[in-house]
Request: fold
Amino acid sequence: MPWNKQEYSVSMKNLEPRVRHKAIEIANALLDDGYEEGRSIAIATAKAEEWDENHPTPESSKSGSTERRHSEPVSSSKSHDNIHVVPTDSGWAIKEEGKSTYLSTFDTKAEAVDKAKELSSKQNIRAIIHNQDGQIASSIKP
Reply:
């Protein structure tokens, strides 16, 4: 189902309007590409929030304000944007986005998620949690 500014997924209702509009745009594009509705919403929400962090509003630029709309500091030393908790043949693993090697492996998903939360907070990065089938289940913001 395509969404618009008046009709959108209930999971987007608490997003700021600017972020919600971007999420709707991204989710509709993902639907057009054949993604499942739930997965489209999860990906679109995460990407819209990331977009918002990297694209300050013109008002904040004009006022000379250096305050960020979110309390998350910017780290220029990050080598990656996200980490992922993913299923493996023998359990679960944490890996950096865009990399094929694992940072660490675990017997259970719970252990991997706990470590991902710790890394997310420590490194100020997003942790994306996948289901056993590889689809995105949730996201943890630092």
In short: The beta strands are 82-88, 91-96, 102-106, 126-130, 136-140.
